[in-house]
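Question (not urgent): is this output format expected?
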Amino acid sequence: MGAHDLNNGRRRNCNHGLEGEAGHHALVAQPHTEAEGPVAAAEAVAAQISTAQHALGRPGKPLNRGSPFFIGMSAAAGVAVMVGTVGMIIAVRDVLILIGLALFFAIGLEPAVSVLARHQFPRWAAVITVLVAGLAVVGGFLAAAIPPLVRQTTQFIAHAPTMLSQLQNHHSLLGRFNDRFHVQQRLQQTLSGDAWGLVNGLLGAGQVVFSALTSVFIVVVLTGYFVADLPRIRATLYRLIPHSRRPRAILLGDEIFAKVGGYVLGNLLVSLITGVFTFAFLVIVGVPYPLLLSTLVAILDLIPVIGSTIAGVVVCLVAFSVSLTVCLTTIGFFLIYRLGEDYLLVPRIIGRVVKVPALVTVVAVLLGGALLGIVGALVAIPAAAALLLLTREVLFPRLDRT
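Got this back:
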C-alpha cells in the first residue's frame, strides 16, 4: 500500500513537472517553483489547454458588453485613445506625410510593375526593373540638365551688372519698372541690413535645402520598400475588413488603387510634355535660360491647377526682361497651352482613369493645398476620385434604400 502511494505520488509529480514546463515558459522567470502559489495551478491548466492546434489556447468567451462597468470603461478608453491618437498624429505629422507620399508614389508605380508581372516577370524582377528604370530616367535627366543649368546660372550672374545698369536707366523698360516698384532700393536695403541676419538667413536656407534633400531620400527609400511589399500590404489591409464585406471591399479598393496609379503615371506624362513644349517655345522666341525655366515649369506642372499658373508667371517675368512683346507672346503661349492641356491632354491621358468634375478638382486642390501644402494639392485629385467612387457605390445606394 505504501509502495502504491509512493508510485502514484511520483506519477503526479512527474505529470506536474511536465505540465509546469508546458504552462511555464522555459525562458521566463526560471526556476519554476511551488512558491508561485495559485499561479502554479493556473500554469497546470495552461499546460492542458495548450495543444498542437492551439499552442496558446482557444480564445475565451467575450465579455458582457451590456454591463455598466464595460460600457463605462469602453467610453473612457475610447476618449483616452482618441486624445492620444490625435496628439500622436500631430507630433509625427511630418513623418506621416512622408510615409503617405511614398505610399502614393508606390501605388502610382504599381501598374508598371503589374504589367511586367503579367508578362512572366517574377515580382522581384519587375520591381527592380521599374525602380532601376525610374532612377535611370531621373539620373539621365539630371546628367543632361545640370551642366546647362550651371552654365545658364553662370551667365545669369555675369549678366547681373547689365541688368543692374538697366534698372538705373530711367528710359529702359526695367528702369521704368524699377521706378514704379523700387526694386533696386529694396534689394539694397536687404543686402545692407544686419550682417548676422543675413548669415542667419543663409544658414536657414541651408537647413531648408538639407531637410528637403533628406525628405526626398526618405521618400525614395520608402517608395522602394512599399512597391516591393505592396501585395502583402494590400492583403493585410483587406484582412482588417470583416469577412462578409471583404469581397466588396476588394473590388472598391482595387479600383481606387488603379485610379491612383493611373493618375500618377498620367500626371508625370503630362508634366513631361509640358516641359518639352515650353523648352521649344522659349528657344524659338529667345527667352534666356530655356532649360532652367522649362524644368521649373515641368516640376510645378505636377501640382494641379495652380502649379502651371505659378510657373507661367515666373517665365513671363523673365520674358519681360527681354521685351514687352516677348512677354505678351509668352503670356499667350501659356494661355493657349493651358487650354490645350485642360481640354485635350488631361482628358485623354488622365480623364479616362480619374473621372473628377472640374469644380470638384478645383475645390479639392484648394482644400488639399490649405491642409497639407504642396503634398495636399498633389494628392487632392486622386483622393477626390476615391471619395466620389465610395459616395457613388456605397453612400448613394444606402440613402436610396432608406
